[in-house]
Amino acid sequence: MRPLAVFDIDGTLVDSRASIYRAACEAAQVLGLPEPEYDRVRQIVGLSLHHALHVLEPSLTDAELADFVAAFQASFRAMYETGHEEPLYPGVMDTLRRLKRDGWRLSLATGQNRRGVARNLARPEWSDLFLSSHCAEDGPGKPDPAMLRAAMTACGADAASTTMIGDTSHDIAMAVAAGVHPLGVGWGFHTVEEQAAAGALHIAADFPDLEAALDRFASTKLFA
C-alpha cells in the first residue's frame, strides 16, 4: 500500500503568520477589544475559526462571538481583494513534487474554511498534487480525528500507512487520536516543545529534515 501524507496548510505549507495575526487584531478593534498578543493568537491556529476565536476571547456572548468571527473573515477578504497571497515556505514545492513523483498519496487537513481551501488549491503549482482536501466546515475540527479519517477513506489508506504533518499541537493531537504517524514541523505556530508534548514522533527543522523523516516512515517493511 502506498503511503499517505496528510498536510496541514497554515504554518506548515503556507506562511500565514502575519495575515492571521493582522486579522485577529483588526477584528478585535472592530469589537472594541484590546489587541491580542501574538503568543495568544498563535495558540489558536489550527482550530476551526469559531472555536479558535472563542478560545481567544471566552467572555464574549454568542452574538459578540458571531460579530468577532465576521470581522475576522472581513479582514481576510479585504486583504485578498487587494491582491494579498500568503507565501509558501521555501522548499515546499520541491518536497511535495518529490513525494508525488515517488508515489506518495497527498491530502490536506486544515482548520481553514472551504473558501480558504479553494483559494489555496487554486495555486497553479498545487493543481495536480492532492487527492483530497478536508477542512473544519466538513465536520468536527481539530483535534477531533474526523478530518484524518475522511482523508484516509477518500485516499484508500489505513492508519498504518498514513502520516499527518503539521505545525501545531492540534495537528499532532488529531494524528494521535486517529492512530496515524504524527510528524511536526518547527517553523510554524507552535513550539517544538508544544508539539512534542502532544505526541509528535519527530519535529522537522526544515524541509530536507522532513523528507528524511518521511523516507524513514516509507522505508518500513509495510512499504518495502
Walkthrough of the structure:
The protein is of the alpha/beta class and 224 residues long. It has two domains: 4-15 and 87-218, HAD superfamily/HAD-like (Rossmann fold, 3-Layer(aba) Sandwich), CATH 3.40.50; 17-81, DNA polymerase, domain 1 (Orthogonal Bundle). It is 47% helix and 12% strand. It contains ten helices and six strands. A six-stranded parallel beta sheet has the order 3-2-1-4-5-6, with helices on both faces. β5, α9 and β6 (202-204) form a beta-alpha-beta unit. α1 (17-30) packs across α4 (62-81). The radius of gyration is 17 Å and the shape is globular. The model has no long low-confidence stretch (mean pLDDT 93).
CATH fold call of the largest domain: Rossmann fold
Strand line-up of the largest beta sheet: 3-2-1-4-5-6
3D shape: globular
Helix-strand string: EHHHHHEHEHEHEHEH
Query: What is the total domain count?
Result: 2
Distance between the termini: 10 Å
Q: How many β strands by DSSP? A: 6
Average per-residue pLDDT, rounded, comes to 93
Largest sheet: 6 strands, parallel
Q: In the CATH hierarchy, what is the architecture of the largest domain at level 2?
A: 3-Layer(aba) Sandwich
Task: State Rg.
Answer: 17 Å
Poorly predicted segments: none
Q: Structural class from helices and strands? A: alpha/beta
Work out the helicity level: 40-55%
Give me the CATH superfamily of the largest domain.
HAD superfamily/HAD-like
Number of helices: 10
